[in-house]
Every structure is written in C-alpha cells, then in structure tokens.
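Dear colleagues,

As part of the handover before I leave the project, I'm documenting each prediction I ran so the next person doesn't have to rerun anything. This entry is a single chain, and its sequence is reproduced below.
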Amino acid sequence: MSLSSTPYAVVMGLQAGYTGQSTGAVAIGFAASATGQRAFAVSVGPSAAITRQGTGAVAIGYQAAAADQAMFSVVIGPFAGQSTAGSGSIILNASQTALNASASGLFIRPLNVTTNDALSTLLYDSSSQAVVQRPLGSTATRLNVYPMLPVMPQMTAQTTAGDFGNYTVTASSEFSAAYAGWKAFSQGGGDWATLGATTNIWLQVKLPVSRNVAFVWFQGRQDSVTEYPVTFRMQGSNDGITFTDINSTLTCGSAAQVTSTPFVIPSGSRNYLYYRFFFPTTNGPNPGLSGYTRMQTHSTTAYPNSVNSVRWTPQGGYNFGDIIRYGSWGFSFTSRGGYVLVEVSMAGYAATTFSQFTINAYLDGTYVNRVQFTNWVPQWSYMNGNYWKQMPTYSFGALLAAGDHVISFDSPAGANFANWDTNMCINFNVIEIL
C-alpha cells in the first residue's frame, strides 16, 4: 500500500489512481480509478471505476463502474454498472454480464433468496414487480411453446386471395392510394394513413371464414413517426355492422417505440368474421399504421428449442430478422396456473466488433423489460466473414393464471440487426414451477 500525492488518498496497484485522484479517495487494483477519481470514492478490483468515479462512490469487482460512476452509488460484482451507475443506485451483479442502471434504486441480478421456511422460496414476479413467496415440494416442468401463425396473407391489394378464400381490408379513410388501408398488412409495402381524420379512426379486416385470432401487433406510421395511434380497442363482428369491443380502451406505446403494441385477445372473444382496429384518439394530422401489422392464431405444433431464419419462416418467407426488426411475433403456451420462468438467449454469426444487442420482451402483451445482451462469447465456427457468437441467458418470471399465454419480442428500431446474417437465432425456454 502507498500514499498518493493527494492528501489522505490511498493507492495500491499498477496505474491505480494514476491521474486526478481527489482527497480521501482509495484505489486498489490494476488501473483502479486510473483517471478522475473524485473525493472519498473507493474502487477495488482490476479496472474498477477506471475513469471518472463520482464523489463518495464505491466500486468493487472487475470493471465494476468502469466509466462515469455517479456520486454516492455503490456497485459490487464483475461488470456491475459497467457503463452506467446512476446517482445513489446500488447494483449487485453476479451474472457475469453487464448490469447497468441509470436511475437510483436497488438492482440485483440474478436474485436467489433462501428463507428460513423450509417449505417455501422467494421468487420475483415481473408482472407485480415484487418478490413473492411460493411453496416448495413443487415440480418444474418445461412447457411446450407454439409459434403463433398468420391469420392473413401478405396483402398486395384491397382484396387478396389466401388460405380459405379472399381477405379484404377497408379503412375509415385513406390519404391516397399510396396510403391505402391494405398497406398496413403489406409486410413492408408501405403505410396506411388517414385523410386528415384524427379521432375514431379504424382499420377493418374481413376474413373468408371466422378465425380464432389470439394475438395482434401494430405500430404507428414508419414514414412519419409523429403520426400514430394513442388509444386502441379491438372489435369483432360476424355481420360487418354490429361490432363488439373485445377489450377496454388501451393506451398504445410511446412515440419513441413507434407505438409498437402487442395485444392478446381473451379466449372468450375469438372466432369473428370481421376484426376492426379502432383508435379513439391519435397523434398527428394523418395518423395510421405501418406495413407490419399482424394478426395471429395458435399453432398445434410445438417449436424447437431455438428459432432462426433458416428453418422458421412463418410469414410467407419473412424471416426471423424481419419479424423482430419490424414487429413482435408471438409464441403461445398453456399454464396450469403458477410461477413461470422464461429463459431467453440469442446466438448467431456476427462481426467480431459486435458486442451488444437489445430486444424488448412482452408477456401477454405487457412490456416486461428491455433486455440488453452484452459480452458475446466468440465460438470457433466462422462463416461469411463473421464469427458465431453465443449470448448469456437472461430470465424473467411471473405468476400466471391457468390458461393460454403469449410471450413476444421486438427490437427497438431494429437495433444492430444490420450486423447479422441469416443464421441468427433466438433460444428460449418456458419453465413452470408448481
């Protein structure tokens, strides 16, 4: 141990507290707080708080709070707060991947708690955002997961032929032929926009036969992200005249998400001939929907452990990259009622400089979390100038009622997908604990 040239400061290790160490600070380990350690901050571990550690902050572990640790925050564990540790936050990380937090609060990954009650355990329920007690003596079962199948073909005109017959799309108004209602189901062929209507607008689909629609997804216009739905109701009809509300009025996503909204249709509100997307309120002079609107139904064939664009093309040839980049694709499973744990991982061929990927996860149409996967592990395989990379597993859980449920994913603005080739895949398991 040695004294720094700064009053009351302590350094131990090569390049620890190398420049800019302030009064009363402590830096222990190679390159710990190498630059810009503020007063009374403490860093312990190789490259801990390597640059710009805030006043009174504490960082313990390899690359813990490696950059820009805010004042009075505490991070413990490898990669804890690696790039972001908000003021006053406490981050405990044992996941071996980065756990960052921009706001104050307690952040733990993973959370495994042992209680004195030998007959129960504590589990995190993401829907209530609380730690709940569940009985032990229970069994863990991997559930079958089924890809949601398209109800409609890729629309190429107002009326398009598909399975079972013709499908017809009409709208409350259309800005022009280039912004016709059917464009919302064209899978990238354009957007639907209204002709100046901003309230009580709707988009209607007539199916050739009544179908069990269980999941829908839509987003605001992609060519004008300030024009989008604000509130939403799904409606059904069997005569095209009298429509029944399937759900109460919902608030759509934020403009930053291009208002991406997955919605699960309750099991008692299915098998309609007509479906209507009804938007009581909107934003912008000519609101509408992007060309990636989806209506899906349940499959009867369980999907394999991983899903990729080579062997899984559910939307008429549109691969997994298109599905994640441009819209959420649902997977259904049936719970007996209990705690469900979802494990998610991703892998694929990517450029060697690529190290991060972000997706949003939804459970029953409700946003669960933005999952930022980091620290990709290069594997030996090499193809098309890219290395195969495998990502650590991320998990979340919830207490669910008995019945059908849907998990879905999307990526904000298709983030980082340009770095992938067609061999990317997503892996996930749904495990029920009773």
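The helical segments are 320-326. The longest helix spans residues 320-326.

All the best with the project,
I.
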